[in-house]
Design brief:
This protein is mainly α and 122 residues long. The chain has one domain. 67% of the residues lie in helices and 0% in strands. The chain contains three helices and no strands. Helix 1 runs parallel beside helix 3. The longest helix is centred in the middle third of the chain and has 29 residues.
Length: 122
Protein backbone atom coordinates (compact mmCIF):
# COMPACT_ATOMS: atom_id res chain seq x y z
CA UNK A 1 0.00 0.00 0.00
CA UNK A 2 1.34 3.42 -0.89
CA UNK A 3 0.36 6.70 0.69
CA UNK A 4 1.87 8.91 -2.02
CA UNK A 5 2.10 11.65 0.59
CA UNK A 6 -1.70 11.95 0.62
CA UNK A 7 -1.89 11.75 4.39
CA UNK A 8 0.79 14.35 5.01
CA UNK A 9 -1.92 16.98 5.51
CA UNK A 10 -4.44 14.75 7.21
CA UNK A 11 -5.61 16.18 10.53
CA UNK A 12 -7.35 13.98 13.03
CA UNK A 13 -9.47 15.66 15.68
CA UNK A 14 -9.45 13.64 18.86
CA UNK A 15 -12.23 14.10 21.41
CA UNK A 16 -9.76 15.54 23.95
CA UNK A 17 -8.23 17.97 21.47
CA UNK A 18 -9.53 20.95 23.45
CA UNK A 19 -7.88 23.91 25.08
CA UNK A 20 -6.59 23.30 28.62
CA UNK A 21 -8.88 25.92 30.20
CA UNK A 22 -12.01 24.28 28.75
CA UNK A 23 -10.77 20.83 29.72
CA UNK A 24 -10.15 22.06 33.24
CA UNK A 25 -13.68 23.48 33.50
CA UNK A 26 -15.16 20.18 32.34
CA UNK A 27 -13.03 18.28 34.83
CA UNK A 28 -14.16 20.55 37.69
CA UNK A 29 -17.75 19.71 36.76
CA UNK A 30 -16.78 16.04 36.91
CA UNK A 31 -15.21 16.67 40.35
CA UNK A 32 -18.53 18.05 41.59
CA UNK A 33 -20.53 15.18 40.15
CA UNK A 34 -18.15 12.51 41.39
CA UNK A 35 -17.98 14.10 44.85
CA UNK A 36 -21.77 14.05 45.17
CA UNK A 37 -21.92 10.54 43.72
CA UNK A 38 -19.27 9.27 46.11
CA UNK A 39 -20.92 10.79 49.18
CA UNK A 40 -24.40 9.54 48.22
CA UNK A 41 -23.31 6.02 47.27
CA UNK A 42 -21.10 5.76 50.36
CA UNK A 43 -23.96 6.58 52.70
CA UNK A 44 -26.41 4.36 50.82
CA UNK A 45 -23.90 1.53 51.09
CA UNK A 46 -23.38 2.17 54.79
CA UNK A 47 -27.15 2.13 55.29
CA UNK A 48 -27.26 -1.28 53.57
CA UNK A 49 -24.61 -2.66 55.92
CA UNK A 50 -21.49 -2.17 53.82
CA UNK A 51 -18.33 -0.76 55.41
CA UNK A 52 -16.12 2.12 54.33
CA UNK A 53 -12.81 0.65 53.16
CA UNK A 54 -10.76 3.87 53.39
CA UNK A 55 -9.57 4.09 57.01
CA UNK A 56 -9.32 7.90 56.98
CA UNK A 57 -12.83 8.28 55.57
CA UNK A 58 -14.13 5.60 57.93
CA UNK A 59 -12.72 7.50 60.90
CA UNK A 60 -14.20 10.81 59.68
CA UNK A 61 -17.60 9.22 59.12
CA UNK A 62 -17.56 7.34 62.43
CA UNK A 63 -16.61 10.48 64.32
CA UNK A 64 -18.57 13.18 62.50
CA UNK A 65 -20.96 11.52 60.04
CA UNK A 66 -21.79 13.40 56.86
CA UNK A 67 -20.00 16.53 58.11
CA UNK A 68 -16.80 14.51 58.52
CA UNK A 69 -17.05 13.13 54.99
CA UNK A 70 -17.74 16.58 53.54
CA UNK A 71 -14.84 18.09 55.52
CA UNK A 72 -12.53 15.42 54.11
CA UNK A 73 -13.69 16.19 50.56
CA UNK A 74 -13.34 19.94 51.17
CA UNK A 75 -9.80 19.42 52.45
CA UNK A 76 -8.87 17.47 49.29
CA UNK A 77 -10.33 20.16 47.05
CA UNK A 78 -8.57 22.84 49.10
CA UNK A 79 -5.20 21.15 48.64
CA UNK A 80 -5.86 20.96 44.91
CA UNK A 81 -6.83 24.62 44.69
CA UNK A 82 -3.76 25.70 46.66
CA UNK A 83 -1.43 23.63 44.45
CA UNK A 84 -3.12 24.54 41.15
CA UNK A 85 -1.43 27.94 40.67
CA UNK A 86 1.97 26.29 41.07
CA UNK A 87 1.47 24.50 37.75
CA UNK A 88 1.85 25.95 34.26
CA UNK A 89 -1.59 26.63 32.72
CA UNK A 90 -1.37 23.73 30.33
CA UNK A 91 -0.95 21.26 33.22
CA UNK A 92 -3.63 22.68 35.53
CA UNK A 93 -6.33 20.22 34.36
CA UNK A 94 -4.37 17.52 36.18
CA UNK A 95 -5.65 18.91 39.52
CA UNK A 96 -9.36 18.25 38.92
CA UNK A 97 -8.49 15.04 37.07
CA UNK A 98 -6.58 13.85 40.14
CA UNK A 99 -9.63 14.52 42.30
CA UNK A 100 -12.31 13.24 39.91
CA UNK A 101 -10.64 9.98 38.91
CA UNK A 102 -10.54 8.24 42.30
CA UNK A 103 -13.97 9.57 43.27
CA UNK A 104 -15.46 8.37 39.98
CA UNK A 105 -13.87 4.94 40.48
CA UNK A 106 -15.29 4.91 44.03
CA UNK A 107 -18.77 5.66 42.67
CA UNK A 108 -18.52 2.75 40.21
CA UNK A 109 -17.31 0.37 42.93
CA UNK A 110 -19.96 1.62 45.37
CA UNK A 111 -22.71 1.14 42.79
CA UNK A 112 -21.52 -2.40 42.04
CA UNK A 113 -21.50 -3.27 45.74
CA UNK A 114 -24.88 -1.67 46.36
CA UNK A 115 -26.33 -3.55 43.42
CA UNK A 116 -24.91 -6.84 44.73
CA UNK A 117 -26.13 -6.28 48.29
CA UNK A 118 -29.55 -4.93 47.36
CA UNK A 119 -30.10 -7.67 44.76
CA UNK A 120 -30.95 -5.11 42.08
CA UNK A 121 -31.26 -6.69 38.67
CA UNK A 122 -31.38 -10.24 40.01
Amino acid sequence: MSSDGADAHLRVDFPLDIEPARLERLLWVLVGLSLVGDVVTTFVGLHLGLAESNPVARSAIDGYGLAGMLALKAFAIGVGLVCRPLLPRVYRPIVPAGLALPWTVAVVINLALITAVAGVGV
